[in-house]
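Why do we care about 3D structure at all? Because function follows from shape, and shape follows, mostly, from sequence. That is the central idea of this module. The next example makes it concrete: a single protein chain, its amino acid sequence, and then its structure expressed as tokens.
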Amino acid sequence: MSKQSLQSLSLSGASEAAERHPSPASERIVEVARELFCRDGIHATGIERILAAANASNMTLYARSGSKDALVREVLTREGADWREAFLAAIIQSGADPMTRLHFVIPAIARWFNGGRFYGCAFMNAAAEHAKGEPAIREMASEHHRQILAFLEGLAVAAGLAEPGLLARQILLTIDGAIAALMVSGDAAVLNVAQRNLDAVLSAARG
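And the structure:
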């Protein structure tokens, strides 16, 4: 998910999302909202803007979602599922050996960063925009992390590494740090540092 974090606030990306999903109107709303929420922010994106880009009506929106908050939750659910599918698939496809897969975590982030749709982590962005105690956003972000942790811990167990649960958390912290640094700086050199950190963590776990 090219370095577009400083992209303009035009509707071009949202319009393209609508064109990729020409029907039904309720589906266009979700895809347009997904593009705009991820790219420009949830609070910066009003319902009227979404409806205009999706060429849809208020009635269609509220028949499907009922509210903007419900639409946000649907967008985050879809964005998270698609991100995990692509990210984990990239790691799995890097090779059969679990250590090879673990070392490929940062190249998988690099693939996303250079892939034309990088807006940072949807869950971190949403949490930053909402009250820190917002239960729905926090729980969705926690579930997203739980699924990634389970995957990483499984690889660590398969690789015979020490303290696989702790190691999974160390790797997830490296992932989150790399994503946040890329979002702020847009500097691909972040990935080199993240890879060195990952390699050091894996080396220590092997020792």
